[in-house]
User: What shape does this take?
Amino acid sequence: MSRIDVRKTYKLYIGGQFPRSESGRSYVVNDAKGRLLANAAQASRKDARDAVVAARAAFGGWSTKTAYNRAQIVYRIAEVLEGRREQFEAELRAAEGVSAAKAKTYVDAAIDRLVWYAGWADKITQVVGNANPVAGPFFNLSTPEPSGVIAVVAPRGALLGLVSVVAPLIVTGNTVVVIASQDNPLTAITLGEVMATSDLPGGVVNVLTGSQSEIAPWLASHMDVNGIDLTGVEDAALASELEVAAADNLKRVRRPAPDTDWLLEPGLDRMTRFMETKTVWHPIGV
Amino acid sequence: MSNIFEYAPAPESRAVVDIKPSYGLFINGEFVDGHGKAFKTVNPATEEVLAEVAEADDADVDEAVKAARRAYTRVWSRMSGAERAKYLYRIARIIQERGRELAVLESIDNGKPIKESRDVDIPVVAAHFFYYAGWADKLEHSGYGSTPLGVAGQVIPWNFPLLMLAWKIAPALACGNTVVLKPAETTPLTALLFAEICQQADLPPGVVNIVTGAGDTGRAIVSHPDVDKVAFTGSTEVGKAIARAVAGTDKKVTLELGGKAANIVFDDAPLDQAIEGIVNGIFFNQGHVCCAGSRLLVQESVADEVLERLKRRMSTLRMGDPLDKNTDVGAINSGEQLKRIRELSEVGDAEGAERWEVACDLPTKGFWFPPTLFTGVSQAHRIAREEIFGPVLSVLTFRTPSEAIEKANNTPFGLSAGVWTDKGSRILSMANRLRAGVVWANTFNKFDPTSPFGGYKESGYGREGGRHGLEAYLKGEDS
Amino acid sequence: MTPTSSSTASTASSAGVFDDVVRSESSLRRFLHGLPGVDQVGCEARAAGLATRSIKTTSKAFAIDLAIRMVDLTTLEGQDTHGKVRALASKAMRPDPADPSCPATAAVCVYPDMVATAKQTLGDSGVNVAAVATAFPSGRAAMDIKLADTRDAVEAGADEIDMVIDRGAFLSGRYLDVYEEIAQVKEACGDAHLKVIFETGELQTYDNVRRASWLAMMAGGHFIKTSTGKVQPAATLPVTLIMLEAVRDFREQTGQMVGVKPAGGIKTTKDAIKYLVMVNEIAGPDWLDPDWFRFGASTLLNDLLMQRTKMTTGRYSGPDYFTLD
Assistant: This one.
């Protein structure tokens, strides 16, 4: 008699913990061929609220860590991911129905992307900051700072897509509440496990699975969220509605780009869009 | 003030300005009639009607956008950066040449003291054009690419009419965009004089279009489908409406909105300069400054001394005729704004804060409000939370650096902040922890074309000034 | 903490308000270094802001006459002669011979050996004789010589003594030595008024100027004075601003008024009026009086006279119409 598998329960990732949805709901996730893969937690607005609270609580500590330290932690995520690459390749093949070669390409790219962004932590300030030669006896320096708590609607591309939107945000010191791809949410939770074991403080990344159209509006209108990245929103009307809601507290908005080719090397824009420029003046005198 | 040394009036001559009885819209290089209901602009210091100004309706705005689009496609986007730069340099020079005229006109229409329009507004306007002129042929080094967006729709406020115009138009043109700009309805005159300057500079028609009007005209610009970029400076309320209006479009937006800046004074501050900074922070331009230091946070151990010195200093402020070279505080820009300042101040009284104001005779005509401070204010008071946009300072106290940070950041705004202390490491720590786009340490209300300006949180997004100011008008290298 | 020295003269002024402060070197240092710092840029911006005040018509006429009355008409040259000093004294009494309504200056300021000559010419005109003493301008002499220098000048009839502080002592942090020296010179002055010269060009920072101001006021100086005129920069608007703030704050604390004298480099009416505006707005109108504010100057007077003539005649005057003494 063959051994019975121990199946994994996919839950949410909030504040460094893996809770079930407070609503008790779950939904069926099928593989590319329409067969049951697993049940995923179906997050509610209250889960979204809890995730924002966790992200806000984590922001102070995360944003004031040294850039070097943040770089090390993001690099550590890459290391741990590398160690578990077979699991991710298998998950991608099952969930997205891609070939083994393709799955390997995505995992490679996801790991490399993390490494790429990790290196930016202590360079982005040098590249986008400025010493400004004002016409007067003043020291004047502009430096970028993270915007705060950012809500993200992740694109399809369960691993590479997710990594490509989350890494640039956390490496710059933001904390994140991400709604995983509705159709392929499981890899996001597995990635949560990687992050949870990579010295990433709880609450820096929070992963919700469930209905985009149900959860996203709560995050878009949440007054303690500073920015919203709509990359994964495919419904134009929903995107518009979210952008309107985001105006309530003037969230920084990144408009949808669901068709992005994530294999291309990104620019700086995913980091700088959710950074604020702070300019400090001081007189120069004796 | 001394009885034996009372300064005699020293008014700047009005003869340098020639205000026409009526003004049209500036579209495609020419002044044309507007089709809306013309409105009047008044001198807020006297309530004298200065001129009648055309209102642009939707069709007028459409004409302006079409002119801007034509100029963009046929001329401006094709011109080399070096050639665009020359036009901007020309404009900068003409502004310097006509500086006195612009300063007097600004003070007449706005109510600000001539010493500010003459020594701050107009020189900084010219400096902005000089600064961005130099960028026009160097954009590939900016980090934001060198591809313009197209037609920029720009809506500006009444507190620094020409300076806000410069902040908008100089970078837009340098990057190769064309513009449709609406000045505030209470202060259109220097923008219309700027239109003449564009003519003097032989700027190609349609590159700059100035349409006058109020909220409806602004809405028409913002929502026009052929506008690629919206830049707005003004209230947070309108900023939010604009953010909603552009939702779902491809329009790029920058917003410079309100503030409620904390000006934090520690007990080891250079006190005499801190007093100047507090005064400059809230009474500069009658407090009509989005980044005004409207919340004074003073360490309890020096609170009494600071207040005493502050009151003594406030008593030497000279309020009155904006054209008098010795005037420190001019007129409130409009009756409507005066009403708001009065209302919020009355709320301050009602909430139990203690009002102190400079004893002075207010002119009988015009819109005036004396420099005022409220003590005994707590974070819960409306005068500590809402932008008054007038010469009203709310004074709060703190005991420790952490308490100062907590109070300073406890606001939906995040435009600016001030810190006064002689301890260098504390300055840097405070500057790091303050959530604001501009932090002035041991100084306040300093502006420079090379220095980015803009807010966190509900104070808006995007930066104006400096290299960062180019981002708003370029497509970017990777988006 | 052990008191290092006690001064016999330390209670000469301010009725003991600062006894604790001047009890020891360390207490004095603590006090002086505890004064609020000065931000150079902010201070200079404030001074420049006041300098843009526009003074017209009646205010200007008043200001010019006041400025003339505040001038310490000065000659401090190796080539000074009795004849030169007599001429200067005559001019101090009647600056504009063509216009008897023109007021006299406050004083003439000379080296001690010229005091008797100056006094002889000035008589009871009301114009004071001020003498620079204490090994002016460097102050580099033994204490007994400085005191003898002072006594000589007073005995010769000086109404005012302009002493220099020991900048070397000040800059090396020996504040109590500077304090004692001022206090002793003051004692040697007897009834003559004491002006304390800092040579702000050598003190360099505004923080130092503020500390020197308090030191001199606590030691009993009647006036604090910027410069000898022999070192550049001499008087500047921001330095004078700091000193005006000091006398203002000193009165606030003790009730006593101390005068301020910028000296050196003030050459035009326009300059002088900028200083008066600053006096008015920083220290207050009480200081707009020759008893509390002076200009140490030589060429300034003729420019004041030319502007005065312009105010009365309505046309511009020329240097040929005023005496070069």
Q: What stands out?
A: Chain B has two domains: 14-257+457-473, 262-441.
